[in-house]
Design brief:
Elements lengths: L1 H68 L6 H31 L3 H13 L2 H17 L5 H118 L6 H32 L8 E3 L1 H19 L2 E6 L7 E3 L1 H17 L5 E9 L4 E8 L6 H4 L11 H4 L8 H11 L3 E8 L3 E9 L25 E5 L3 H12 L4 E5 L2 H10 L4 E4 L8 H10 L7 E5 L4 H10 L3 E4 L4 H9 L3
Parallel strand pairs: 2-4, 8-9, 8-10, 10-11, 11-12
Antiparallel strand pairs: 1-3, 4-5, 5-7, 6-7
Length: 603
């Protein structure tokens, strides 16, 4: 989905920038074309002006030559022909000058036209031409007999043509040629402009389109590559974690199964050995239960269903219990254990004793586990103003290397999986502790660690309102257990041994308890007997717990409480069961005390 979105965005940007580039190209090309056409028009106008100026200059030269030729003529016939030619050339000059004036007025570049007109005005061209024509008209009125006077007049006209007209026309022609040259240079520059524009378009396409797309593709590739690397790392970490979990499960299971097999052979173990065997089985079973609880707690935290119970807690009692547990471990390793109260702590706080003990145990257990000699200390502080309990845990153990320091609070991460094979544990402890403390409004950090010199961890969490202790009472009323006396209960579980254990627990509380090991058997027994409550397993062959509940309500019209007794411990599963119609939810495994307390709450 992410790739599709990325490709759509890239495609949109490509089309957008392509349209922008196309429109820009058309606009610039249109401007350059218009500019080029204007230059060509201006150049053509100047060329026409220059040609007309040249023709006028040629007429002046011809008139001058005719006038000079008159000096060598002695007869009237030849002079009449010459006069006729002169007249024709003068008319031609007059017409060409009129065309020239009209052409100058048509020049679109008014500045150039005005400069040419101004230049000719400065030379008094119009006046000189008028004078030139008037003088010739006077000569035309002379009789041809007066040849000498006629020749003198033509000589004057010739001199005037060279001296006055030719000079003015020459200046105007030079100016027109200079203008033509300027426009030619500009036309040539249009090519340079086009080259620069092409370069601009290429740069624009690269800067606005190809480079960003290329950059995005590279970034996307790097992200995907990093995600692949992270996935590989996560896969390796999970594989290591599963291998470690496998080790953690199989080790106590081997012990449990081994002792169970030994206990099944009568007379193989003495009384003392049997007692130790039962104790060992119980210890390893509790270890497995703790392992399962850790995994479930982590799953709840990951999906946001981790619950913190607010209850009245005696911190000193919690720490005393924790000290006794850890003291048993440190005595076995012959290392010291000290709890140092650096400030007074309250007798009661509002928090979750189970989570407090779980978080502290995880860190202390690690400290003891990885300490070979020396000891473990925990300094305890209470900040009354902030209502914060802080614990500094120090050990003289193996320490943590620099690379692992940033990883130890991550899920599935351990410093060295192969190395840690020498030590029990799932690698979830610190990650779970961090998440628990975050839920309690606190955190944990590694303050110091050096290889073979030990580590220092600090952890803290908030406690709640200390003024409401009297309004809370979470103590279990022992009298509630008496509620089960005389109650008739049905335990439905396809696991025969589980159903027998639960039956024994409840019989010990004074209840009458029947057992059914399938859904069909349960429906038959409810149809033939009267029960005050049914404990119903969910996952069973043929008819599961949901099907049995539906038929209990619809077919047998059973209205008493039906409690889900299942190995599903996730909060989501509990909600689903209640939503389906169960009156309550009890998670396996469960101790006799907890089962009796839970069941008695329905009476």
């Amino acid at each position: 989905m992410e790739i599709q979105t990325f490709l759509k965005r890239v495609r949109f940007e490509f089309y957008l920038y392509s349209v922008v580039a196309l429109v820009t190209s058309l606009v610039v090309t249109g401007v350059l074309y218009s500019y080029h056409a204007d230059l060509i028009e201006q150049q053509n106008s100047l060329q026409q002006v220059n040609q007309l100026l040249t023709k006028q200059m040629e007429s002046v030269v011809v008139i001058s030559d005719i006038a000079e030729g008159a000096e060598e003529i002695n007869n009237k016939g030849a002079l009449a022909k010459l006069q006729k030619r002169m007249h024709a050339e003068l008319n031609s000059l007059k017409n060409e000058h009129a065309l020239f004036t009209s052409a100058v007025q048509r020049i679109e570049n008014k500045k150039i036209g005005e400069e040419i007109v101004g230049l000719l005005r400065d030379e008094n061209l119009e006046e000189k031409i008028e004078i030139f024509l008037k003088r010739y008209q006077k000569m035309e009125a002379l009789e041809l007999e007066n040849v000498k006077e006629f020749q003198v007049g033509l000589s004057t006209i010739s001199n005037m043509a060279y001296r006055e007209l030719f000079k003015a026309f020459t200046k105007a022609s030079d100016f027109a040629r200079l203008g033509q040259s300027t426009y030619q240079d500009r036309i040539k520059n249009i090519g340079n402009y086009l080259i620069l524009f092409i370069v601009f378009v290429i740069v624009m396409f690269w800067g606005l389109l190809f480079h960003p797309i290329y950059k995005k593709l590279i970034i996307q590739y790097e992200k995907k590559n990093q995600a692949l690397v992270n996935a590989q790392i996560a896969t390796r970490a999970k594989n290591d974690f599963l291998a470690n979990i496998n080790h953690e499960i199989r080790t106590p299971m081997t012990t449990i199964l081994g002792y169970v097999e030994l206990l099944s052979v009568e007379g193989l173990l003495g009384a003392d050995e049997q007692s130790r065997a039962y104790q060992t089985i119980n210890t390893n079973a509790n270890h497995l239960l703790k392992l399962i609880d850790e995994i479930l707690d982590l799953s709840k935290l990951e999906i946001g269903e981790f619950n913190v119970n607010t209850e009245k807690v005696d911190p000193k009692k919690v720490l005393s219990d924790l000290y006794n547990i850890m003291r048993f471990k440190t005595d076995k390793k012959n290392i010291d254990l000290k709890f140092n109260f650096k400030t007074p702590i309250p007798d009661k706080v509002l928090s979750d004793s189970k989570r407090i003990k779980q978080a502290l145990f995880n860190v202390l257990n690690n400290a003891v586990k990885f300490t070979v000699e020396g000891g473990v200390e925990m300094d305890i502080y209470f900040d009354k103003d902030q209502c914060t309990l802080t614990f500094i845990i120090k050990d003289s153990g193996l320490g943590i290397n620099d690379k692992a320091k940033s990883e130890i609070f991550k899920i599935f991460s351990q410093e060295n999986t192969n190395y840690n094979r020498n030590y029990s544990g799932t690698g979830l402890g610190l990650a779970l502790t961090k998440k628990i403390l975050n839920e309690l409004g606190g955190d944990i950090k590694l303050d110091y660690s050096e290889k073979n010199k030990g580590s220092v961890f600090s952890l803290w969490f908030k406690v709640k309102d200390l003024e409401t202790f009297n309004s809370l009472d979470t103590e279990v009323n022992v009298e509630d257990h008496k509620k089960l006396v005389g109650k008739r209960l049905l335990v439905v579980d396809d696991a025969v041994e589980n159903s027998r254990i639960f039956q024994k627990y409840l019989l010990g509380a004074g209840s009458e308890v029947d057992v059914a090991n399938s859904g069909h058997e349960a429906l038959e027994m409810v149809g033939n007997n009267t029960y005050d409550l049914v404990l119903l397993d969910i996952q069973m062959p043929e008819l599961d717990g949901y099907q049995v509940l539906r038929r209990l309500r619809e077919d047998t019209m059973f209205e008493q409480p039906v409690i889900a007794l299942t190995a599903h411990a996730m909060e989501e599963q509990k909600r689903e069961n209640l939503k389906f119609g169960f009156d309550g939810h009890i998670s396996k495994p469960i101790s006799s005390q907890s089962l009796i307390q839970s069941v008695s709450s329905y009476f």
